[in-house]
Structure formats: C-alpha cells, structure tokens
C-alpha cells in the first residue's frame, strides 16, 4: 500500500498554551498543538532563557501535541514561557504566563522521595491557673519539611487572640511550639496542630483547661467611689421577660472585643455556675447563652451578663418573671438526694383525684416499669426510681394534663459527680467535647462508643486532670455518632452524640455560554461565571460533550478559571457532530448544566497505522481489504476510481463496506478474472492508501470422462480416451506410463472446446499401459490392454528356446530365429529410516521424499494412495544417480496420504500428514483501554490470519456462550465479542483463543456514579403547617441505586407517620400528618451525592382550638374479653377537625384489626376482635386536646390441665418437703393458693414458684400443722389437695429414762429438765404417780423442745420420784442438779450476699450441752434451708441460698445462757471474673465464647450484633456453675460481628471474626517430560473454587501469552505451555497464597538431521543467491546468510546450523566487468596550480589504477587519488612543465587516456582556485578490500 502526503508547510499552532495559576508544590503542564511538514523542532524558553530538559523540566511530544512539565513548581518558576517551532519551511512561536502561588497544595503523585508527615511527639493536654503561661510543644517529621499550623476550636488563632497574647515558633530538631501568655478562662478549649507536607496532612489535638480564680471583691453590684456606677444605675430600665412555669428561659448576649471578652452571668447579684438547670455556653453564631431549664417561681429575678476584657467591661440585664399555672399542685415535688443504687422517691399532691398526671425525666416521658414505679393514691402522686444510677441524676417533672407542672431535682451521690449530657448535637467537622467529674481522683476509667472502648488516636483525645476526665473527638464525622459512655468502677454515665450535616450549597450555573465554529474542525467555547460566584465556595468548571445523534454525556475538560476553550478535532474519539454543555462544581455538588447553542462537526486527525495489502485470490473467491487508522474517522472506498456506497449493502451488491472503531474493511464477493488488476483505494482526510486485486485462474477440473469404461482392445482396434474439462481451451498433457506422449500417425490428440481426446487408430500390443490426462489441477487415469487377434499363434522351441510365429505364418513356412534371453539384474531400494517414513508438514511448506535405488539407472514409479503421481508446477520428480526424489514446493492438506516409490522388485513407502498452518492473530484492540461504566457497549475484536478459523472466547478461564447480554460475531477474519449493555459482573479477563494463538483483554465495568438529578439545588427549605403532608423527593441517575435518609444527623427508620418510598428513579420520604416534632434537617444521601431539606413545621392559629366535648373525664377502664368488639369514641367541638389515634406513642392507621370512623363531629376507633395485645392506653389527639382511653382485654380462661390425673390425696411424714404442682392452659395465668380457706403467702418455709405454665406450692419441713385442705384457684378453675402429715412418736432426746438419784440441800431450787424430739409435744409432770400442780413454788416451762420443772426452795417434803410423761415415752428423774451450760464463743454480726450461704457459729462450755437456734423467737429446725451441726463444743447454723427475707436477728440458747447476732443480707454484686475473649476461626467451623461470673445461677442473655441469640441447631447455650458458654457452629463469613453477654447490669463483648479457610491443594501438579515443541499441562486442584493462584517458573511470575495459557475450571487450576522449547525446562510453582506446590518440566531435545545439504553455488555479481537446505523437522530454526543482490565480497562459506546439525556450501561470485562510462578529457592548467583528471566507471565498487605513461601512480604529497561512488579522480598538486604527459585510468577490463598540458606561471594577483574536498575511501592500492568469513 502507499500513503500519500501533502505539500510542505511551515509550523502552525492549532492550540496555544494558555496562562494559568498553580499552587506551590504541584506539577505545572504547558501544552500546545503544532502542525507542520516536515515535522517541526520544538524549543522552550523561560524569560528568554532556553530550557534544557533535565531535573524538574521534562519535555514530551505525542503526535502533534507538545508539553513542558515543571515538576513541583515553586514561586521562582513563575514567569513568561515561550514555545518555538521551526522547520525547513519557516518558524513560529507562542507565549504563556505561569503563576505559582504559595497555598493549599494539591494532590501530588509519584514523588519517590516524599514522606508523609507524622507526629513523633504529640502536644499534651494542660490544666493551668488563670494568669499562667501555657506552652504546647510537638515534634513533627515529614518530607518535604511539614508546615505547622495551630487552631483553637476550629478557628485560626489570629481570629481569636491579639498578637501579643500568643506566639508560634519552631526550634531545632523539628520541634514546634505554641505559647499563650497569661492564660484566661476563655482560652480553654481544644487546640489542634496541623502538619502539612505536600498534599498530605497529619493532625494532633490537646485540651487546655483554665481554672478561674475567685471572683474579685469588687463586683458590678457594688464598687468603690472611683469605680463604675452601681448596678442599679446600669440596669435601670432592664426589659422584663415572662415565661410559664416549667418552660425554658433563654438569654442571649452578643459581645465583641479583642481580646475575647470574659463572660460572667449573675442572678440578683450572685454569680451563676453551670448546673442541672443552668446551661452556659457560646453558640455557633458567637452569642453567649444562659439557658434556665424548667423555670420555677424561685427563678424570678434580675439576670445580668457582664463582659470584660483588658480594655473595659459592659453589662446587659433582663428581669425574669415566672408565671405559674392557675391550677397548681397542692404539694410540690421536693429535691431528692440519694446514694447510688438506692431508691429515690418523688411525691406530690394534685388538687383533684381525677386529674391525670404524667411523669417526665426532662423531655422524656416515663412509662411504668420495674425501673419506674408510679403510684396514685387519692391526690397523692408518687414516683419511685429503683436502683438509682448516675444517669438517673436529673430534673423530674410531674405534669397535670394541659395544666401545671411540679419540678424537682434528683441528685445521685456516687463516684461520678458531674455526669454527661443526655445528648450532644454537633455539626460535621466540629469538635465534640465530653467532660465528667468524679468525687475523687480515680483510675481505671473507660470511655466507649456503642459498647466499643475508645483508644487514644490523633483525632481522639483522652485526658484526666485529677477529678476531671475529658474526651475530645476532633473534627467529627457522621460515623462518630452513637452512644458515648464513661464508666468507672460500677458507675456509668452515657450521652447520645448526634452529628448534623453542614448545609452547603452547590455553585450556581455559569452564564453567557457561546460557541463559535468559524475555524474548521474546531469549536471555540466561551462562558462567564455566575453573578454570585464570589459568595460561594470556590468551584471548577466541567465541560462535557455528546454526539448529536445521541449517547451519554462525557466529560472532556475540567478547568479552574472561567475562560474560553478551543476544542480541537483531535480531542474527540471519532468523527461526528458534537454538542457541548458546561457546569460549575465544588465539593458540595454541581450546578445545573448549561448547553452551548448549536453543534460542530469534529474529526480527529488520523494517521495510517496499518496499510492496505495487495490481495491475491482465485477466480470466484471473496477478496478482503482492511486497514487501521490512529483515530475513529469516516472514510471512503473507491474501486477503480468509482466511489462505493457507505450505506448498508443492497441486495445483490458485490461490495460490503464495514467500519469497526479504527479499522475499515472492504469485502468483494465472488471476484472474476476480469477483476484482476483492479485498484482499491481508501481516502479519509489526508490519508490515502491503495492496493491491487490479483485474480488467478481457477484450477481446471475434469467434469466427466470414459475412465470407468473397460479399455481392453484387440490388435488393430480403435482406442479412444476422452475427458471433458471445466474450462474450454485449457491445456492438458497426456502421459503413458509416466512419460508424456506426442501426436503421431499412430496416436492422435484432439481438443474441441472443453472436450479432449486421445485416439489410437490401430492399437498394437505395445500400446498396452497406463494413460493419464493431466489438466494441471486434476487428472484422470486409463488402463489400456491390447491383446492378440483371431489368428493362430505357434510356439517353436529350439535348444530350449520358445519361438513365436507371427500372424499368417504356416507350418510349412517356418522362419527360424536364434534368440538369446539374458536375465535382468534385480532392483533394490535402500531401507528408509522410520523417522523419514512418517512425515508431518505444515500447509504451505515444502516437502521432500527421497530414497536410494540400485542400480542407479533403474526406473521407478511414484504412487500416492495407489495412484500414479504426475509432475506439476508444484510437484517435481528428480532422479540423480541412485537418489530418487519427490518434491512439493508448497503442500496443501489434500497432499496428505501414502506415497510409494515403486521400483518393480522393491518399494519404499512414506506416510505424509499435512496440517493446517497455525492461525495467527494479526491485530486486535487489546491495547485499548477497556474501562467502562455500567450500561456502556463493550466491543472486543481481533483479526485472524485466515478467514474461517474457529475461535473460542473465555472469561476468567471459562468459555462463554452467546446470549442476550453477550453477542459473538465472526465476519471473515474478524471476530468480535460484544456486550450491548455492560454490567459490573462483566468485569474480568476475556480471552480469544484461536487454537494456536490467543489474545487477552482486561475489562473493568464500574458502577455508574449515582447523581441526584432533581432537584438541582443541594439545599432546600420547606415551610409546612401542622397536619399537612410533607413530601421530600429526589430523582437519581441510577434507578436502582440505594439511598439513606437522615434527620438531624441520625438515620431514620420507617414508621406509620414516616414512609420511605421508591418510585422508579425517585426516592421519596412522606410524612402524612406533620407536627412540630417533625421540624429538622432531612438528608437524602446516595453513594456519591447528598441533598438536604430543611423542614420547618409551624402551627396554624387562625382557627379556634379543637376541644373534645365527650367523653367526660375521668374515663373508666374499658374491659372486654378476648374476641369481643372494642369501641372508643369522642365528640369534637368542630366537625371538620382531624384527629389521629395512637397507642402508647405509636400512631395507628386504619387497616388490619383496626377500623377508624368519622361521623360529623364524632370520631370512633373500633377493634372488631380484641386480643390480649390490644390492651393499653389509646389516645385520641385533636391537636389542641387529647383524651386517653384505657383498654383492658381480659385474658382467656385459665384452666388446669390434666386435673383428673393429678394426685389430690397427699400423705407425707413430718419434716419432709411437700410439693403440690399444677399445669395451666396459659403460661401467663395467675393462681392463688389457699390452706383451709386462708390465702397462702410466700415465706421462707412456704414457697410459691412459677415456671412457664407450671405453678408449684412447696412446704419445707412439714409439720402436723401443715396438714389440711389446699386449694389452687386460677379464677376460672380450681383443684383441692388433701394433705395429711404423720407425726412421729415423741421421744426424749439424749435420755435413757433410767431413774437418776440426786440429793439436794433444803432451800435450794430443784430444776428438772428434759429435751423432746418434737417442740409441740405435750407432757405431764408426776411426783410419786400424782400430777404435779403448778403454783408459786412450782413452775412448768416449755422452750421449744425443752421441758422444765422448777421447784423453788425445795423442802424434804418435795422428795420423791418425778416423772416427765410424754404419753408415749415417760421419763423419771430424782432430785438432780446439773452444771450450767455457758457460751465460750458468742455470735458475731454477719454481712452476706444474696443467694450465698452463711454459717453462724458458737462454742459451749462442754460437749454434751444442748442448744437451740431461733430467728425472731421462732425455733429453727434442720432441713434443706437450715443445717444444724454439733462438733465437739462447736455448734453451727448454716443458712443456704440467702434471700432478703433471711435478714434479721438470730439467737442461740442453752438452759443457762443465750447469744444473738444480726444477719444483714445485701444484694449480690455480680462481677465478671473471666471476660469474653475475641475468637477468630474459619468458615464452617465452630466458635465458643465462655466467661466466668462471680456467682452461679445468674441468668444472662447472649446477643450478636444487637440481636438476641436463641438455641438452635447451630447455636448451643450452656451454663455450668459460674460459667456461661455460647457455641456457634457451621459458621459463615456473614456471622462475623460482636457477641455480647448481658446479665443484670453487666455487659461483656467480644469480636467474632470468621475467615475463609486456608486454601489447600487437593491434588498437586506432577513432574512432566515432553518432547521439544510438545505441549505441557500442569494441573492442580484446590479446596475452594474462588481462590486465586499465581504460576511461577523458577521464581518468576508467568503471564498469559501466545504459548502460555493460564485458566481455571471449577477448583482446577491449569497452566498449559504449547510449543515447548529447551528454555522452558525448569521448576513450575502454583502459589495459592496459603499453600503452594511445585513440579518440574523436562524438555527432551529432538534430534534434527539434515535431509538435503546445501549445494555450492556460483552467481554473477548483483544476482540473487539461493541456498536450500532441508531438515528432518519443518519448524526448526537455523542460521544462514541472506542472498539478495550478492557482491564479490559476499563469496565464502555459507553455513546452516540447526541444533547439532550443520550443512555447509561455498558461494562463488563472478564479478561484473568494469567499464569506463565517462572517459578522461585532455586538460590544460597553469603552472603551480593543481590539475584534476576525472572519469566515471560503471559501478561504485570498480577498482582502477592510474598510470603516467606506462608507470603506475600512487597517492602521496604530489598525487591525490579519490574514489567517490562511481567517480574516479586524480589530483596533481603544484603542476609544472615536467608534469606534462599522458595519464591513463586503467580499469583492467577498460581504460581511458588523456593529455595534460602545463602553461606558464599565473599572473600575480590572480586568485588561484582552491582545492576541492573529496569524500570517500582512500587506500594505498587503489581500492577497498572486504573480507567475508
């Protein structure tokens, strides 16, 4: 092909460099576009000084685009830059100004010597007293050297402080400091140090606390004479402000001054400090705020704000009045102070019993619960706060409905004195400061967010100053929102951190957009910034283009300066009509786009990348022409000068024009011979290329013949062989037995049109043989036999020789011939090696078959598949001596077959297989960028070396199939894979495999950016009225993209009154009935953009308030049974008023089980089928009035299950435990137990238990008194148990009842005592058989099991036998006096924990002493609860499983002594002994979490990511003693998260991390051994199909290529190497990350032999020398010498080397004779001048010699001999008369002679001619010598 170029032209600027400004440290690029022919040279200058490309200056050229890059620009780089362009035609220049400013550095990339800034030593937080100097220091590293800046609370220090108040500096070794002189309380806050290096930044923060000193004596309310005027004078006329009781009062004071004023708030002359009801702070607008919360009457007074600094002071005052409600509480709430974990009780009295009240903790309404117990007794309202904690500290309110409030403060004394605020709202980017004060300095504090402990980071400051503990979150983001908690020991306080988005508006749209298309193939775009651009954040301009025919808008330019832009044709991807639009954008969004009017036709300047090639096809085939340009432009095809249509091909059209990207192609179908020589031309702009179509004749085919007819003839018969050809007049050749025949009298050759005939007019026996008609591309065979005629044949023999008689001979006429027959020698073929017998040849390559035959001249025949082979243009048969060769210059697949060299007596066979030539990929678009966004069209294409090759497309190693989303196309050699609409899952590696070659493409498809198309503004304000419907809508650019909605920084959830709706591309938030609580900032956030709606709901006051007329208050409780209908109704004051119903704060809507009705002024709520969940409080809200209904749905009948099967008759032994148990029909049913008609209470000995539906009554240690009738009553059902207790016989403990004799002295007391086995047994005392009567001297006592008879002042008459009769066991005793039993060790007070055991121990005076234990005077018996033990003198009482009921006084008694102690039972303090530990495991395995508590039997709850975990097949929960375990089985990756155990007030968390199991190799690759050029496949199988692997060879990673294919199939990973070479041998490793395996590849070198050696060659100079050498393998690579246009010096030894095989031959070059083309001419010169003789020889290498006369001349001082090209020159210096002579140039084959004449000396002053330089080779022998080998 040929590419035509235009005329030369001088350089010209298509696009000029423009002036612009950059920040210091960034790269600056000056670019311009220059054209010119020839290509111009480019030079750059700065301030008229040339710039050398080195260091920070880099010059680059891409086509006609030239750039100068200034790396890391500094202010010194500012100046005037000039670009000069110059070529041989002319030159031009252009200038631009570059300005480098010091400021915010932009993004730097690629700086190898840069180092991110880092704080080696961060500044420390400080607490200082007023007036002290404060210094923050830090040490920073970074490269380049970081720039350090300080700020306070997000403001520059210069904006807050006067310059004399602070100093910032730097010290050696990268130390930086900030010093504050004379610290003031306003100086306190968060100080942030920013270190910036290039585009990277690091920050560190510290806190400063300034403690104010005591207030001076001279306050504003009193001053000396020379001081300011009295307060009364200053505040006289202070305005009054009234607020209702219970409401907030907010005072704002705006003060300016420098230094920043110090603010003091006072009330009635007393300073105010921040507290529960007094908030003092500075808001974002700079106002100083005092907020008095929940005002009380005592808050009335004069409030003064005093602002002072070093320059003076000012005050502002306001009089606060608190207006009380007309209906007040009779008794107000009183402030309460309790210790932590104690109960706090608040109590007040309302005027009427019927007035409903509600309790509030500040702004949160409290609901009755275990924590908050609310009681109403007449007019008394009581709130009990159980187990008060730090977060319960606050302000509590009791409010009568729409009436007065009563307010009290609850102070909780504990470790924490100052708790966290309940919530904290900060703007995004601000600092969040949390402060906690403890009662004393403590250690072990912990800050956490959402349960996760916070650690010190550059953006998280944790600091403690004695009792003050600080947490600072620097520059908060939305992710920092959550519950912030501070805990120390067992105390904790929490706060909700809410982060609000900063409202920022996107820029306004640019204006005055215009487009000029005067210049060809370019567009000049101009615009102006928006009028309010200076009021908004800095923005940049985005220019987008789109084809007029449709498509996506594509960004083509981004610039910071409003200006004009020239868009050139080279900036577009393809030729088309384009339109443009522009918009302004900053970090807050982008403006609406503004389109430039009109459109412009642009075409990129294309260059010819791959030209047209001449096409050679055969008659009837298709011809294919293609070329590739550097850009996608339109073009026109011409055929023989005629333009071909670019429209779709018409029916019957021969030509098809196609364009795919930058490739243009032309297909001509069914070419004919007449088309040969046709010129095909392609023209596109300045590109023009042509090619020629060559059409060859189609091979001649034989259509029909009489080949199949029998060709057996008799002598003399006519033989006719004929065949019909496919084309008339085609040349044919006839052969007989392999030799061409010639026409003669006995053989006639005829041809008439397509019919060819061979005729034998009179057949003879010698005509027998095989005839062949060869038409070049086809042939036909005839086997002709000619037999004898009908005459008799005679045989005569003589001397053993048979004689044959000819026709007509008779017996009588015999002619005798003497015949000598000699036996012919036998023909033999040398054995052919097996390697040569089996040959595989690629199509298009030559093939040689050779065998050695003896004798040398023996005839042979070559056969193919049994048929004779005839020579053709491509097939030659050679016979040289013993060598017989068959040579095919270019084989085709049809040449495959069995070839046989038949020598008659012997034969040699060759099996030839012809394989198709490997398919090659000529071109493809693999180098083009294949990065797309979802929805774009993806086209991958490649062009093959042959038309109909089969290809396979793969994605990530798996073959793809055509479908709706993937189209496979193949037109001729062009193959395409098209994705009409790309999706993200289409990302991957695509490969086109053509068998012998492949090409890979990496395609990445990204999700399109989610833009908010409507509304265009990024911040909207909506004003709505209460009860109106609020609709917030935004339209997305991606219809199915997700969004998140936020309100005041917190993500919202869908409720009945807040609906989140998706309508196609629209995202909507609906509030059906708005209220004032719905006021706030709503944000809709997509992946890439966000939009905010500022909704403000205000109340309408135009209409009178709506009142509820009926029902009257109070409303009785509505009680219904399950399944009945509930009707709640009310009557309004206006029929058009709207109400909404709510149940316990949740808004109700009609539908499901609810019906809402409206009839005039009546509103009703109906529940057709009431269920238990419908119980509760229902509120009908009419905006201005509400009414509350209490609905109680009675539970269903509670039945006792299987009551007939229960044993109602129970009998037990005394002191046994009695258990009565029933099962109910409902688990929540309640029962009551009665004994003999009296209700049974739960005591220590009698227990009432519930477990699901089971109800139990347990009596511990039954006695006779426990016998009776027990009734279990559910209200709907009952059952009676009859219990009998068998009492054991009464016995005396420790007595054998033997008669004991005792003596007493008269007057002493007689004491007789015995101990019974039962405490309630009755006894009688007998003396001598008579019952003893009690009296003054005789006393009978019973103490538990002890029975005692005392006779005071015994007399002799009292002697006798005394018997204690216990009916069943009488015991007798005489007068007896025992020793006293005293306590050696007495009881001590004991404090124990709940649910634990306690042991009370005493020691008595002797081992046999009896004691009894009592609690509150009740005798204790040994059992499961109490265990009594006696060991020696020790007596112990063990109490099991302590409860609060076990508190009290315990007493131990003997007959003579007693001791008692107090047992105090405290609630158990459960703690975590062994916390949870983080668990990291693998997928499908199990994870076990275990922790140990301090107490057993503590119930707990397991949660995972906040969701309660319940036992299941994959989850086991177990408890053993103090240990609690959670086991999760068959884990998946999604199970990763936080596992939490909660018990009582304890909470413990741990992380669960589930990883994919490590990849293992199920099957490893094996060692392989393959022959050279063979295929090697390494394969391994992994345990996971998704694992990625890398293949390495000897440590080097392998990449897919033509001979290396890497792919996967399921879990199999395969590496396939084709056409292996010796260099491919080595160790191959498959690395899967977690495991790897290696295998070795051995490549066996093949033995290459030379089949046909090189032959010596002699050629004439200038001719081509061709050397042929045939090796045993067709694909071997060898070395030889090119032989085109040889020269004499090329002669020598030619060597072909292939492996170990070598073949050599000599090249002899016959030099051409040298002729003198232009002879010498006689010359006359002046003396002392130089004489030049010159002639021209026939070629430049001709060697000559110079002669003077007959003497040869050599170069020297006198003579100079020059040889330049074909010129031969002799220069004679300073000639004189003696130089006159004949001079000859002898070229050996030719010569030329001239005469030199010398005239007299030249005249003075005449300018002598100067010598002329002659370039060339100069040798001493008159020629150059070249040496080959």
Automatic annotation (TrEMBL):
<dbReference type="InterPro" id="IPR003599">
    <property type="entry name" value="Ig_sub"/>
</dbReference>
<keyword id="KW-0963">Cytoplasm</keyword>
<comment type="subunit">
    <text>Component of the 3M complex, composed of core components CUL7, CCDC8 and OBSL1. Interacts with CCDC8. Interacts with CUL7; the interaction is direct. Interacts with FBXW8. Interacts (via N-terminal Ig-like domain) with TTN/titin (via C-terminal Ig-like domain); the interaction is direct.</text>
</comment>
<dbReference type="GO" id="GO:0050775">
    <property type="term" value="P:positive regulation of dendrite morphogenesis"/>
</dbReference>
<feature type="domain" description="Ig-like">
    <location>
        <begin position="825"/>
        <end position="913"/>
    </location>
</feature>
<feature type="domain" description="Ig-like">
    <location>
        <begin position="1212"/>
        <end position="1272"/>
    </location>
</feature>
<dbReference type="InterPro" id="IPR003961">
    <property type="entry name" value="FN3_dom"/>
</dbReference>
<feature type="domain" description="Ig-like">
    <location>
        <begin position="918"/>
        <end position="1004"/>
    </location>
</feature>
<feature type="domain" description="Ig-like">
    <location>
        <begin position="1104"/>
        <end position="1190"/>
    </location>
</feature>
<dbReference type="InterPro" id="IPR013783">
    <property type="entry name" value="Ig-like_fold"/>
</dbReference>
<feature type="domain" description="Ig-like">
    <location>
        <begin position="228"/>
        <end position="316"/>
    </location>
</feature>
<dbReference type="GO" id="GO:0007030">
    <property type="term" value="P:Golgi organization"/>
</dbReference>
<feature type="domain" description="Ig-like">
    <location>
        <begin position="1288"/>
        <end position="1382"/>
    </location>
</feature>
<feature type="domain" description="Ig-like">
    <location>
        <begin position="699"/>
        <end position="785"/>
    </location>
</feature>
<dbReference type="GO" id="GO:0048471">
    <property type="term" value="C:perinuclear region of cytoplasm"/>
</dbReference>
<comment type="similarity">
    <text>Belongs to the protein kinase superfamily. CAMK Ser/Thr protein kinase family.</text>
</comment>
<feature type="domain" description="Fibronectin type-III">
    <location>
        <begin position="506"/>
        <end position="605"/>
    </location>
</feature>
<feature type="domain" description="Ig-like">
    <location>
        <begin position="11"/>
        <end position="99"/>
    </location>
</feature>
<feature type="domain" description="Ig-like">
    <location>
        <begin position="1399"/>
        <end position="1471"/>
    </location>
</feature>
<feature type="domain" description="Ig-like">
    <location>
        <begin position="327"/>
        <end position="411"/>
    </location>
</feature>
<keyword id="KW-0597">Phosphoprotein</keyword>
<feature type="domain" description="Ig-like">
    <location>
        <begin position="117"/>
        <end position="204"/>
    </location>
</feature>
<keyword id="KW-1015">Disulfide bond</keyword>
<dbReference type="InterPro" id="IPR036116">
    <property type="entry name" value="FN3_sf"/>
</dbReference>
<keyword id="KW-0539">Nucleus</keyword>
<protein>
    <recommendedName>
        <fullName>Obscurin-like protein 1</fullName>
    </recommendedName>
</protein>
<dbReference type="InterPro" id="IPR052385">
    <property type="entry name" value="Obscurin/Obscurin-like_Reg"/>
</dbReference>
<dbReference type="InterPro" id="IPR003598">
    <property type="entry name" value="Ig_sub2"/>
</dbReference>
<keyword id="KW-0393">Immunoglobulin domain</keyword>
<comment type="function">
    <text>Core component of the 3M complex, a complex required to regulate microtubule dynamics and genome integrity. It is unclear how the 3M complex regulates microtubules, it could act by controlling the level of a microtubule stabilizer. Acts as a regulator of the Cul7-RING(FBXW8) ubiquitin-protein ligase, playing a critical role in the ubiquitin ligase pathway that regulates Golgi morphogenesis and dendrite patterning in brain. Required to localize CUL7 to the Golgi apparatus in neurons.</text>
</comment>
<dbReference type="GO" id="GO:0005634">
    <property type="term" value="C:nucleus"/>
</dbReference>
<dbReference type="Pfam" id="PF13927">
    <property type="entry name" value="Ig_3"/>
</dbReference>
<feature type="domain" description="Ig-like">
    <location>
        <begin position="1557"/>
        <end position="1649"/>
    </location>
</feature>
<feature type="domain" description="Ig-like">
    <location>
        <begin position="1008"/>
        <end position="1098"/>
    </location>
</feature>
<feature type="domain" description="Ig-like">
    <location>
        <begin position="1713"/>
        <end position="1787"/>
    </location>
</feature>
<dbReference type="InterPro" id="IPR007110">
    <property type="entry name" value="Ig-like_dom"/>
</dbReference>
<dbReference type="InterPro" id="IPR013098">
    <property type="entry name" value="Ig_I-set"/>
</dbReference>
<dbReference type="InterPro" id="IPR036179">
    <property type="entry name" value="Ig-like_dom_sf"/>
</dbReference>
<dbReference type="GO" id="GO:0005794">
    <property type="term" value="C:Golgi apparatus"/>
</dbReference>
<dbReference type="Pfam" id="PF07679">
    <property type="entry name" value="I-set"/>
</dbReference>
<keyword id="KW-0677">Repeat</keyword>
<keyword id="KW-0333">Golgi apparatus</keyword>
